[in-house]
Recover the amino acids of this structure.
């Protein structure tokens, strides 16, 4: 019995996106594909424990789902043939010249992450159609009502149909921009798990980080040559590896230099390092995820915090600033500069970011820490106050509060 | 598939001669590539009249049905195989007429 349950879970992880993608391709309709896939898995749950797991679960699920879809279409065709045909998803479908990435699941991912959809709709649709999460699961993940999440997904599917968002992998010229849109969706899911917000939320949501990693692994398997996909996967793995060390038993954030490095996940770190080395060996100019992964590789290579190669970290941030001149990158660079050139130099840089980052908790938390290290307790306390007010993560609030309360007067 | 590309404007001054020339060139290209269906510019919303004849007696109201800072200043109706193509054309249109545009599919 346990074996069957396991087989169903594994089939769901491995086959859901494939079943939805192939049905969407065949029937030209996301709605039909989603519903038929869900019915096929429900049938598996009912029948596999009695009849045994079929020798090829993927083929069994696809066949069953196809049959369910045809049943539904027959029922509906009796009602309104023409209208349905008019709403079929557009798929002009010349065989893809890109070869290596011609997988139906990729079409599904690119359609779900289409830039004409709102970011929150892309996230929800990707988790449902590609990740196979249920609507209640996605609703819980983003702390919204189930009905709201259901409507968000329904609306997105309706727009895809009515506006004829194509079901295909973008052309070679659009591919880099569109692929980066897909990565943005996955990174957002990961970050929502890693930096979970909300007063009643666990500080780290492993369900979300795990799902983001699983989907990024899938894209990596489909587009192994894409440096940014590899970079994002490495970044997630090296971040996830430190997940348990990042929150103390009492629920407080543990900063990088105080973490128990022995409790980092060595396997994830090894895999992340291997991916970063692979990108270095490729000899191509890295994008932002690859640089962020490299920064994390430097951190996770140091046996102790004091062994960190800060000049390497700052050099990587310099590279990142050239790609992404955003104030948040500048803030993170300043944190590294503090280790290399001292808090005084870093503070001068951080203070120049006030205009643009005054509403961002990490800006105030960084200032508070630099001021504390410079012995300016009063100013530090004021900065901690602002950071605490703005921080949304429970573990971070706890950490900042303790740090503030440790300040002398 | 037909798409309505609405030109959104927030000022009363119509297109400059340079913009008009760019729009003409763009329109010729639309025609050459088989995307052209129809296009036109509209007079300002203050010239609009709303008519309601649902009850047999036409009631006229001076002005647009919706007062807003931004309004429809013109439009294209284009033929495109899918939204990606429509969006690419609309992006060109926005650049040439130097205004924001909205893309909406016909039913």
């Amino acid at each position: 019995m346990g074996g069957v349950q396991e087989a169903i879970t594994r089939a769901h992880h491995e086959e859901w996106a494939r079943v939805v993608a192939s049905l969407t391709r065949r029937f030209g309709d996301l709605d039909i594909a989603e519903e038929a896939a869900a019915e096929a898995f429900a049938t598996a749950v009912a029948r596999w424990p009695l009849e045994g797991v079929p020798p090829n679960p993927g083929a069994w699920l696809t066949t069953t789902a196809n049959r369910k879809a045809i049943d539904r279409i027959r029922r509906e065709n009796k009602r309104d043939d023409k209208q349905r045909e008019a709403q079929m998803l557009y798929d002009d479908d010349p065989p893809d010249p890109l070869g290596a990435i011609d997988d139906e699941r990729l079409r599904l991912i690119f359609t779900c992450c289409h830039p004409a959809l709102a970011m929150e709709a892309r996230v929800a649709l990707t988790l449902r159609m590609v990740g196979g999460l249920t609507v209640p699961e996605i609703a819980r993940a983003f702390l919204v009502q189930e009905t709201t999440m259901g409507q968000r997904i329904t609306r997105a599917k309706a727009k895809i149909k009515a506006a004829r968002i194509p079901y295909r992998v973008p052309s070679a010229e659009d591919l880099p921009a569109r692929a980066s849109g897909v990565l943005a969706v996955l990174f957002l899911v990961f970050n929502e798990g890693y930096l979970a917000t909300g007063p009643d939320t666990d500080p780290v949501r492993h369900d979300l980080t795990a799902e983001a990693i699983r989907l990024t692994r899938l894209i990596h398997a489909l587009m192994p040559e894409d440096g940014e996909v590899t970079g994002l996967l490495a970044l997630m793995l090296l971040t996830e590896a430190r997940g348990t060390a990042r929150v103390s038993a009492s629920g407080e954030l543990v900063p990088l230099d105080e973490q128990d490095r022995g409790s980092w996940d060595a396997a994830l770190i090894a895999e992340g390092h291997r991916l970063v080395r692979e990108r270095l060996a490729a000899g191509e100019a890295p994008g932002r995820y690859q640089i962020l992964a490299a920064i994390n590789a430097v951190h996770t290579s140091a046996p102790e915090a004091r062994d960190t190669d800060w000049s390497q970290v700052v050099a990587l941030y310099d590279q990142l600033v050239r790609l992404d001149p955003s104030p948040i990158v500048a803030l993170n660079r300043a944190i590294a500069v503090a280790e290399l050139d001292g808090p005084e130099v870093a503070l001068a840089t951080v203070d120049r970011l006030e205009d643009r980052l005054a509403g961002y908790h990490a800006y105030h938390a960084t200032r508070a820490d630099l001021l504390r290290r410079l012995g300016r307790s009063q100013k530090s306390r004021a900065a901690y106050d602002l950071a605490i007010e703005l921080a949304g993560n429970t573990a971070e609030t706890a950490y900042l509060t303790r740090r503030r309360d440790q300040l002398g007067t | 598939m037909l798409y309505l590309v609405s030109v959104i404007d927030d000022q009363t001054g119509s297109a400059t001669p340079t913009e008009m020339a760019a729009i003409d060139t763009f329109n010729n290209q639309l025609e050459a590539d088989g995307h052209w269906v129809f296009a036109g510019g509209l007079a300002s919303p203050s010239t609009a009249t709303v008519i309601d004849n649902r009850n047999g007696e036409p009631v006229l109201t001076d002005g647009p049905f919706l007062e807003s800072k931004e309004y429809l200043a013109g439009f294209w109706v284009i033929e495109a195989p899918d939204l990606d193509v429509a969006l690419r054309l609309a992006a060109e249109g926005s650049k040439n007429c130097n205004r924001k545009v909205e893309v909406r599919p016909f039913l």
Remarks:
- The longest helix of chain A spans residues 57-86.
